[in-house]
C-alpha cells in the first residue's frame, strides 16, 4: 500500500520578527506533519519570490494568498496525483515546480511551495520509519559513508540590517572548531556569549546589551575591528583561547551604492569605500584575526571584485561563501564557477523554494569541489528542519545565529539530539571540527 497525502492544510502564523509566515500541515496514514517557512531581511535579488499580500494588514506583509495557494491549488493537485511518499520527495517537488510554472516561483509563491516541501519531507521520513536526517541523506545522488556533525557558526554580534547600531557589517560569527563534539562546542560558545555580555556591560553600560534579529548583541560600535576585538576579549575571558575561528558576513549588497560600498549607510555620514579599499580592509582583518570564512564580501553583481578577491582568499585559505551572489540557485552557481568567483555555497532553503532543489544545489557545489554552508534566515521560527538537512548533506558547518533566542537555539538543540542519537545508534559519526570545509569528501 503506497503512503499518500490525505490532507494538505496551510495557515498564517508569525516568524521571529513578528511578521506573518506560512505554516503547512500534511497528513498521511502515519500522522500529521508540520513545517513553518523562514524569511530573510537582507534578501538577494536572485532569490525565489515569497508572496506578500500588500494592503493594510500586517503592514502589507500578510501571506494569506500563499496560504490559499496551498489550500486551493497545491493541496488538491498533489492529492489528485496520489504520489507514494515512500518513493521520496523529488516527484512531489518537481511536480510543484511545474505547477507553479514560473522561473522564480512567483506564481504560487516560494513560501507556499517550500512549506509543502518541508512538511512532505517529514511525511516521507515517517513513511519509511526513519529519522528526517536519514531520509534527507537518502535523497542525495551520492551518499556519504559516515555522518558528520557540523561546526556551528554563532552570530554573536549583529549589525547591518539586522540591528539598530551603526555597524555596517551584518554578522560576526564564532566557530568552536577546537571542540570534540557539537555539545562541547555549544557549551563553549554559550560561555563566550555570556562573557561578551559582561564585557559589553562594562564598556558601554547595561543599556547596550540589546540583541539583533539573530540573537547577537548590537552594541554601539561602527568599525569591524571593534567587533572583532570584543569577540577576542570574550573568548579569552571565557578561557577558550585558540579554540574558536571567526566568520564574517558583511552582507555587502545592502551597502553597495553606485559602484562603491558605503560603510556609513546606517549613520548620517557616508563612508565610501571602493571595492579595492574594501578588499584591503578585509585583508587587514584576515591578517590580524583568526578569520576562516567570508560571506558576501562584495555585492551580488560585482563579479570583478569577487573574482580578484578569490585569488587572495585562496592564498589566505579563507572560505569564500556566496549568499546573495548564488541564491542557492544552480544557474548562479554555474555562473560563479565559470568566473571562479567563490568556493562555497551558502544554502538557504527558501532562496530556492524546494528541498529537492536545495539538495541538488549542494551536490552541484560538491561536484565543483566547493564547500557548502547551511543557513537559517534572520526571520526564523522554531522549526528545526535545517539541523537535519545539515547532517544529511554532511557539509560540516551551519549558521543559525547566536546561542540565544528560541528560534536560533531550536536548531542547535536539535543538533545535540542528533549527535546523541547517532552515538546511540553506533553510526560512527564525527564532529567536523577543523575540517568543516571539506567534511563531505
Ligand atoms: P537574511 O540574513 O536572512 O536577512 O538574508 C542572513 C544572511 O545574509 O546570511
Ligand atoms: Zn549572508
Give the gist of this structure.
The chain contains 13 helices and 16 strands. 39% of the residues lie in helices and 17% in strands.
Care to describe what's here?
The chain is an alpha/beta fold and 441 residues long. It folds into two domains: 125 residues, Enolase-like, domain 1, CATH 3.30.390; 289 residues, Alpha-Beta Barrel (TIM Barrel), CATH 3.20.20.120. The strands form four sheets. An eight-stranded mixed beta barrel has the order 5-6-7-11-12-13-14-15, surrounded by six helices. The chain has a three-stranded antiparallel sheet with strand order 1-2-3, with helices on one face. It has a three-stranded antiparallel sheet with strand order 8-9-10. A hairpin with a 2-residue loop joins strand 2 and strand 3. Helix 1 crosses helix 3 and helix 3 crosses helix 4. It is globular, with a radius of gyration of 21 Å. The mean pLDDT is 97. Bound molecules: 2-phosphoglycolic acid (PGA) and zinc ion. The site of zinc ion has 5 residues, from loops. Belongs to the enolase family. It is an enzyme of class 4 (lyase). It comes from Exophiala xenobiotica. Its cofactor is Mg(2+).
Amino acid at each position: 500500500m503506497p503512503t499518500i497525502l490525505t490532507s494538505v492544510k496551510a495557515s498564517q502564523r508569525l516568524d521571529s520578527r513578528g511578521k506573518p509566515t506560512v505554516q503547512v500541515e500534511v497528513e498521511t496514514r502515519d500522522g500529521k506533519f508540520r513545517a513553518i517557512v523562514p524569511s530573510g531581511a537582507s534578501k538577494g535579488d536572485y532569490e525565489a519570490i515569497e508572496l506578500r499580500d500588500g494592503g493594510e494588514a500586517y503592514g502589507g506583509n500578510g501571506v494569506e494568498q500563499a496560504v490559499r495557494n496551498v489550500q486551493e491549488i497545491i493541496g488538491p493537485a498533489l492529492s489528485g496525483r496520489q504520489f507514494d511518499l515512500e518513493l521520496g520527495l523529488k516527484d512531489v517537488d518537481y511536480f510543484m515546480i511545474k505547477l507553479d510554472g514560473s522561473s522564480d516561483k512567483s506564481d504560487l509563491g516560494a513560501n507556499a511551495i517550500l512549506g509543502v516541501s518541508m512538511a512532505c519531507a517529514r511525511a516521507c521520513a515517517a513513511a519509511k520509519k526513519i529519522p528526517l536526517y536519514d531520509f534527507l541523506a537518502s535523497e542525495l545522488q551520492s551518499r556519504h559513508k559516515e555522518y558528520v556533525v557540523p561546526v556551528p557558526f554563532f552570530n554573536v554580534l549583529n549589525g547591518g540590517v539586522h540591528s539598530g547600531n551603526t555597524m555596517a557589517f551584518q554578522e560576526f560569527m564564532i566557530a568552536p572548531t577546537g571542540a570534540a563534539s557539537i555539545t562541547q562546542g555549544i557549551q563553549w560558545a554559550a560561555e563566550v556569549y555570556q562573557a561578551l555580555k559582561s564585557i559589553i556591560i562594562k564598556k558601554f553600560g547595561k543599556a547596550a546589551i540589546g540583541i539583533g534579529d539573530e540573537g547577537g548583541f548590537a552594541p554601539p560600535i561602527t568599525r569591524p575591528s571593534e567587533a572583532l576585538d570584543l569577540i577576542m576579549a570574550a573568548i579569552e575571558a571565557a578561557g577558550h583561547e585558540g579554540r574558536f575561528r571567526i566568520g564574517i558576513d558583511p552582507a555587502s549588497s545592502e551597502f553597495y551604492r553606485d559602484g562603491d560600498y558605503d560603510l556609513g549607510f546606517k549613520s548620517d555620514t557616508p563612508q565610501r569605500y571602493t571595492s579595492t579599499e574594501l578588499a584591503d580592509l578585509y585583508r587587514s582583518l584576515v591578517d590580524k584575526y583568526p578569520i576562516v570564512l567570508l560571506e558576501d564580501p562584495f555585492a551580488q553583481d560585482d563579479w570583478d571584485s569577487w573574482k580578484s578577491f578569490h585569488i587572495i582568499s585562496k592564498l589566505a585559505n579563507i572560505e569564500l561563501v556566496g549568499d546573495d551572489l548564488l541564491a542557492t540557485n544552480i544557474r548562479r552557481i554555474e555562473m560563479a564557477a565559470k568566473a571562479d568567483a567563490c568556493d562555497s555555497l551558502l544554502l538557504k532553503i527558501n532562496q530556492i523554494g524546494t528541498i529537492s532543489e536545495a539538495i541538488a544545489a549542494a551536490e552541484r557545489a560538491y561536484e565543483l569541489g566547493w564547500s557548502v554552508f547551511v543557513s537559517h534566515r534572520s526571520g526564523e521560527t522554531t522549526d528545526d528542519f535545517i539541523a537535519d538537512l545539515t547532517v544529511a548533506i554532511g557539509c560540516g558547518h551551519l549558521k543559525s545565529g547566536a546561542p540565544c533566542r528560541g528560534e536560533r537555539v531550536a536548531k542547535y538543540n536539535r543538533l545535540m539530539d542528533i549527535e546523541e542519537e547517532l552515538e546511540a545508534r553506533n553510526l560512527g559519526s564525527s564532529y567536523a571540527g577543523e575540517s568543516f570545509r571539506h567534511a563531505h569528501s
